[in-house]
Write a structure and sequence with these properties.
324 residues; single chain; seven-stranded parallel beta sheet; Rossmann fold
Amino acid sequence: MKVMKIVILDGYTENPGDLSWAGMEALGKLVVYDRTSLTDEKEIIGRIGDAQVVITNKTPISRTTLDACPQVKYIGVLATGYNVVDVDAAKEKEIPVTNIPTYGTAAVAQMTIALLLEVCHHVGHHSQAVFSGRWESNPDWCFWDYPLIELDGKTMGLIGFGRIGQATAKIAKALGMNILAYDEYPNDSGKALAEYVSLDELLSRSDVISLHCPLFPSTQGIINEENIAKMKESAILLNTSRGPLVQEQDLADALNSGRIAAAAVDVVSAEPIKGDNPLLKAKNCIITPHIAWAPKESRARLMDIAVENLRAFKEGKPVNVVNL
């Protein structure tokens, strides 16, 4: 195969400068854009140009774009989710689309527990209170502004119990938590960690509910007014999976009314978050900017897999293909 032209449309979040694109550079003539418009299709088409290889994270690749860029032979997604690509159009054109299926398991599980511990202890808030002088001027030897929660003996329910869900469960068990799981496909490794139950039972029994399921039509809006009503009033909701799993107005209403105790989310329905997102004004809600995937170690792993995906395609043995 002749030297391929490789265009990375939005490389900044994967590599803001602390990693190297050398692996990609070894496979062809590389052009890297930090960001490309998510809505200006003319810009997307112009940047792809005559490239044979397109690498994207969140920049959409539509049928119109593929029609306008007939030289494209391969699309690599720098993420696990690949809904930004019209995979059906790519399949019709015999263009393999690859993703990165397993790079962030440990990182996302760690972030899930970090969010939970923040809800339980509000470490950042109390640290800031100390630095602002409140401890120094306090009449007592200690103080706290939120109820502090001990997790030992409490129950975590995981909706979706694949790799990330099970990795999260292992950490939660180390904290002394009991584990429930809801998943359409129970497996032996899951049974060794958790009690599989129905969704309704998980919602009613769990002190902490953590979302780890893919976004499908059947799971979109799975956290809604009806299902929130089945939860304990003391329940904590965590979401490090996909924003649209949650009906955000229903969750905000539940938090503001005290129907559930707290929520911590790393993902929202539209990203970057919009100023009118109801969770921004909800009580007892922690929001982080979709960073669960982003430790350097995790991004380095993603980079390595992306390079190997392209190398395998170049050698005629494509792997991690999602559409062929």
